[in-house]
Amino acid sequence: SVQEMVKEKMITTVPPRYVRSDLDKANMADDSSGLKTEIPVIDMNSLCSSTSMDAEIDKLDSACKEWGFFQLVNHGIDSGFLDKFKSEIQGLFNLPMEEKK
């Protein structure tokens, strides 16, 4: 990974394919480009509601097909648990490549 190559001093600069110019960034953020810039949000309460379930399922279907991910809200999972989970995941990404294998 690039992270490992930097850590082991195998490279000293960011590979060009990972570099974006300010112009590229401006174009990506430009709403007129037709790109969607907001992550889809799926409401768990709506998924469990008989009156709004169908519409929310359609949103979920679209999010999965078009984005491949989404933000889930009103899921009832404790924020402390989520913080611990994020910390553990970050720890996994910070492990040396040899330990990840």
Automatic annotation (TrEMBL):
<feature type="domain" description="Non-haem dioxygenase N-terminal">
    <location>
        <begin position="39"/>
        <end position="101"/>
    </location>
</feature>
<dbReference type="Pfam" id="PF14226">
    <property type="entry name" value="DIOX_N"/>
</dbReference>
<dbReference type="InterPro" id="IPR026992">
    <property type="entry name" value="DIOX_N"/>
</dbReference>
<dbReference type="GO" id="GO:0046872">
    <property type="term" value="F:metal ion binding"/>
</dbReference>
<dbReference type="InterPro" id="IPR050295">
    <property type="entry name" value="Plant_2OG-oxidoreductases"/>
</dbReference>
<keyword id="KW-0408">Iron</keyword>
<keyword id="KW-0479">Metal-binding</keyword>
<dbReference type="InterPro" id="IPR027443">
    <property type="entry name" value="IPNS-like_sf"/>
</dbReference>
<protein>
    <submittedName>
        <fullName>Protein SRG1</fullName>
    </submittedName>
</protein>
